[in-house]
Amino acid sequence: MRPRTGSGEAIVVGAGPNGLAAAVTLALSGFRVTVLEAADTIGGGTRSGELGVPGVVFDHCSSAHVVGAGSPFLRSLDLEPYGLEWLWPEVDLAHPLDSGGAGALYRSVGRTADGLGADGHAWRRLFGPLAADAEVLADAVMRPLARVPRHPLRLARFGFHALQPATLVAKRFRTDEARGVFGGVAAHLFGPLTQPVGAAIGLMIIAMGHRFGWPAAKGGSRAITDALAALLTEAGGHIETGVRVRSLEELPPADAVMLDLVPAAAAEVIGDRLPARVRRAYARFRHGPGAFKLDLAVEGGIPWRAEYCRRAGTVHLGGSFEEIAHVEREVHRGRMPQRPFMLVSQQYLADPGRSSGGIHPVSAYAHVPHGYAGDATSAMLRQFERFAPGTRERIVSLTAMSTAELERYNANYIGGDIISGANTPLQLLTRPRMVPDPYRTGVPGVFLCSAATPPGAGAHGMSGHNAARSALRALGRPVPGGRAPSTALRGAPRRYRKHTIR
């Protein structure tokens, strides 16, 4: 794929999914793009590699890609020739219960409903229409909400449910299986399930899961950013690793600078050029609860009691809906629960090449308070034993990452916040500040493109793509798939003072 004719210089700070998405969008619009990454490897939250056992490949952060597979940006690109191949497990998601049973989520609404017994009809009634509209909803919800939707009636149907607390939506279901499945997905909010708009993320992820499944990227999540990097290189872009940008003054001339940074870090890089009103808004930006991560090399896999879990790429450990709601409320209040909610990834079931013989990679996140300084390893292993007795005996190697280690791994994960910002009701709708174009920093030519901007976390690239479209509009350039560009900012300075990259 070659860029269209045109010229311009763009610099992208950060080579995670959003930074590379911004870079690809600008490169395909004719810009000469340079990406600067502080780490020695690209990928941000999509890096993968061996840990402890040769040949056993772990995803260091994101692993199941329901929003990635459904991303309007990624779907607009033909990334298979660049190495991205999606693989699906037999069961997309399982949610075990203390009874030994489990609820299961499939790509099919009907198959999921058939396994939920008395709640089958209620599940079809709620998620059938949402899954049918998943592509329309993704296109609307994964862009700034100030934008006029193309299908307002369909979006209104989603919005009626999404604005409710997850606890209210859960009352539609009577069985522990259906309530557990919904509650586990709703807990991706990383916040109280009782809050307004608390159901939005769970509803959207389930709808997209029924449409696109919960696939893994073959070879590891790094394949997503490797594919974007290969496309960028073919389009004439350039990536430099091991380059930490501390100030705009370090950068060479550019028409557009894209910052794949959280607001606090962006404010530091922009410095005194940042308008006071924007600095105040960035200072008010709140970060959410943290994550504590375990990577386990397990001989023979996890010995789950529930059969669904043995075939599921993703498993949620949290027990009943009521328990999940209680635990998420405690974490939000800064209290570490004895039984933390956990997300377990078994992507080797879809991608056997990640295993070595009978030793398989299993990763797990626990929701913990922001900046939690303790060790959640024992609590997490107890949760495994609760639903899969005998897990400890099968562990060949174990690697733990605390909230502080997650922040060192990725500077955007402040306090272990892997979603780059708290999903409070207001911030969920207006991150990182309440303006029509949240990607603009108030400095001509400088844009925020991280997961702190809409639509938020996930290896989908939409934040970066949306920010690049904002930059194109500001520069008076044609916007892919959009309206004619605005000329309002054509008089803005096009270049910064000349500097060299140090």
UniProtKB/TrEMBL annotation:
It comes from Streptomyces iranensis. This is Phytoene dehydrogenase-like protein. Transmembrane segments: none annotated. Residues 476-502 are annotated as: Disordered. PANTHER family: DEHYDROGENASE-RELATED (PTHR10668:SF105), PHYTOENE DEHYDROGENASE (PTHR10668). Residues 492-502 have a biased composition (Basic residues). InterPro entries: FAD/NAD-bd_sf (IPR036188).
